[in-house]
Amino acid sequence: MNEFKNSILALIKATIDPRKISKITYEPSKSLILSYDELVCNTTLFTNKSISYIDDSNMSSVVNSECNSVSETYSFLQNKTLVKITDIENYNNNYIRLCDDLKKIFKAKKVDCHIYFGKKGSPSFEFHKDPMHVLIGCLEGKKEIKFKRRKVFLDVNDWVYIPANTNHKAYYPENSITISIGLYK
To answer: What is the C-alpha to C-alpha distance for residues 13 and 155, in angstroms, rounded to an integer?
Structure first.
């Protein structure tokens, strides 16, 4: 925990000025990598409308508005290039602990967590600003995050802290699993 806290605090210090967004390398517990099948086939996540996909229109669509069962969802998602699973902080004990730790570190009112399964060249949201601070980590593969004046390339175990209201857009140069943590002050 202390190593993670020190790494995150160092990252925040480096990014106080949004023009100086940088990244750190931190290897989280392997237990944070949850399999695609485990998540997509989870009835709780399906019931809670936590599974969505992003298509070529760059819009996020909730899967269970189009599917009636977990097996139908699994089949439906097979040809989707970017799948987003939300509310992981309510699903898995390792994520519950991670989010509780981050809540303390950041003195946040709320912390939420999403996992993205992206195939190479996946569509993503257009440039956007999140109202909360965001911490993004690459668990497998690579991810690129473009800002107004620069790009940050994330390899496995690289993390970037994005201050609230910072314009950014993600790209997937190869298949990847990434985690996005929202920090609400």
So the answer is: 21
For residue 59, the SS3 value is coil
Closest CA to 85 of 121, 128, 32: 32
Half-sphere exposure of 181 (CA within 13 A, CB side): 27
Mean pLDDT is lowest, of 20-29, 74-83, 173-182, for: 20-29
14-23, 58-67, 139-148, range with the lowest pLDDT: 14-23
Q: Which two tokens stand for residue 173?
A: 């140069």
In the three-class reduction of DSSP (H, G, I as helix; E, B as strand; rest coil), residue 134 is classed as strand
pLDDT tens digits, 17-61: 545 555 666 666 666 778 888 888 888 888 888 999 987 777 788
140 φ/ψ angles, rounded to the nearest 5 degrees: -150, 145
Query: Closest Cα partner for 173 from 116, 137, 121?
Result: 121
Q: 58-84 burial, b for 16+ CB within 10 Å, e for fewer?
A: eeeeebbeebeebeebbebbeebbbbb
